[in-house]
Amino acid sequence: MTVRKTDELTTKVAEHRTPTYEIEPIFLNRWSPRAYSEQPIDDETLFRIFEAARWAPSSYNLQPWRFIVAKSEEDRSKFLSFIFEGNVTWCKKAPVLAVLVSHTVNSNGEPNHKHAFDAGAAWGYLALQATQLGIYTHAMGGFDREKAREVLQLPAEYEPQIVISLGYYGDPQDLPEALRAREVPSTRRPLSEIVFEGQFGGKMKSL
Ligand SMILES: Cc1cc2nc3c(=O)[nH]c(=O)nc-3n(C[C@H](O)[C@H](O)[C@H](O)COP(=O)(O)O)c2cc1C
Predict the structure, then answer these.
(1) Using CA atoms, how far apart are residues 133 and 122, in angstroms rounded to an integer?
(2) Which of 124-148 are b and which e, b meaning 16 or more Cβ less than 10 Å from the residue's Cβ?
(3) Burial class (CB in 10 A: 0-12, 13-18, 19+), 207
(4) How many Cβ atoms from other residues are within 10 Å of residue 79's Cβ?
(5) What pLDDT was estimated at residue 5?
(6) Whose CA is nearest to atom 6 of ligand 1?
(7) Would the CB of 31 count as within 6 Å of ligand 1?
(8) Which residues contact 49 (CB under 8 A, 6 or more apart)?
(9) What does the DSSP 8-state code read for residue 111?
(10) Per-chain mean pLDDT for the chain
(11) Ramachandran category for residue 31: left, alpha or beta (phi over 0 → left; psi -120 to 50 → alpha)
């Protein structure tokens, strides 16, 4: 059952995503679906996913990322209380929700201007490792930051970045129609729009 689903999803990705240059398939196979199964994620698998995030690079190796996880019904409903309704519609089925917060200061209490950038790298590592383990992640910026601060009892020097849903793929038929239509891996801008030579906007030959 799980194998068939993996095959279906790989086909779905192949239909929608074509890299211009050869890359590892994991980069294409990671995408952000909304159709979650309620199948739980065992702790070993979950810890492997956070372990990958742990090894992300960061400015001065400050590792400003922290993850606050909700697995129990009680914690999940606490988290759902600060996630915006448009996201709750689908993410409520995900067995795990995690809030990624970043430490905004260094050990001397001075601002770490790279905290958000580094937290983003940790999210990327996490998402790729999850994909490798057959778990789908979806980042959400759509939540009430102030309410999250209160509910999570977040110290002032930490900033909420995203909520992440994690789970196995479910049945898209369970989604409201508008979301079902969006349940396809997205594509990307061409390389020529994001890689420049010499100066901003400088066209790179043969790109
Ligand atoms: C910082 C961040 C915030 C996002 N916020 C939301 C959100 O609130 N709701 C949502 O449905 N998707 C959200 N997304 C998912 C993006 O829309 C998605 O990553 C993007 O369209 C690319 O698609 P892919 O992840 O399937 O490759 C967010 C992604 C990121 C990285």
Answers:
(1) 17
(2) bbbbbbbbeebbbbbbbeebeeeeb
(3) middle
(4) 24
(5) 76
(6) 140
(7) yes
(8) 126, 129, 130, 133, 135, 166
(9) B
(10) 96
(11) beta
CATH of domain 32-184: 3.40.109.10
CA dihedral 183, 122, 166, 151 (to 10 degrees): -110
Q: What is the pTM of this model?
A: 0.96
CA 175, CA 34: separation in Å to the nearest integer?
8
| Residue of 138, 184, 186 to mutate, ligand 1, most atoms within 8 A of C-beta | 138
Ligand 1 touching residue 89 (CB < 6 A): no
Q: Is 32 in the pocket of ligand 1 (CB under 6 A)?
A: yes
SS3 185: coil
pLDDT tens digits, residue range 85-102? 999 999 999 999 999 999
Closest CA to 80 of 66, 67, 65, 99: 99
